[in-house]
UniProtKB/TrEMBL annotation:
This is G-protein coupled receptors family 1 profile domain-containing protein. InterPro entries: GPCR_Rhodpsn, GPCR_Rhodpsn_7TM. One of its GO terms (cellular component) is plasma membrane. SUPFAM superfamilies: Family A G protein-coupled receptor-like (SSF81321). Pfam families: 7tm_1. GO terms for molecular function: G protein-coupled receptor activity. It is found in: Membrane.
Amino acid sequence: MSSTDYLNNISLYFSMYVGVFILVIGILGNIFNILVLLSLKIFRENSCAFYIKAMSCLNIGQLLASLLPRILNLWFSIDWSVASLAYCKIRMYVFQVCTVTSFTCMCLATIDQYLTTCSYPRLQRLSNIKFAYRCFTIVMLFWILHGILVLIYTNYVVLSPAGDYICGISNKIYQNYNTYGFTLVLISSLPVLITVLSGSLAYHNVTQLAYRAIPLVRRELDKQLTVMVLVQVVFNFCVIVPYIIAYMINLYANVSKDSYSYAQIQLLRSITINTFYSYFAVSINDYL
């Protein structure tokens, strides 16, 4: 077996076994997350907890729409997107809407923790459950409408003169937007930037809580939620930044598909894609 074949096999088996592990842990972890946050009244009426619950529901949808079909294809060579164009379009749509809305909820949760721990009453008033409902509704409707383009431009794309085809984006302009605008900005760089910035501000606010006249129960709740959010922010940074780097290397690398360098890049991609999926799998309650 050549070195190239050896790396290709590592990539394949890594995706097969790690993917199954992430899928199972992700589904169970997000369900547990939702049940815990729904079972306690103090979390049911908290805006940050609401964003986390919504994010958990969206994470389940993302894993089922994206990771599950990927695993079925790797393990059993089942690719329903080739057999049905309708399934192909719906899968791409659900994947896009759930992914970008999940990241938006994470951003809103960190911003909410900054607002609720802020010393300015006017900003604190923006952190309430009714305002969270409105924000989520607007965000959800926006991304649902935004995803209509993927329904329009997702079609069968011919790969070779022999007639081989895959489910993909057929419009060149939208393909460029999906590559650079959606993947490199909306579901990677921008969420990292927003969560790191707002998370840092929330951490600064929490360090000042001891000097304010705040009820003990409220203070401890703010600390607990801020810790949950901040650890998630650090985890997101660790799994998303490597994905961005590997994605860009794969995008701009000019190497032959039969070369050893290409096999190395694909191994890197396989590892970082699966770690990227772990964002949707790791329950925020696991940190406590």
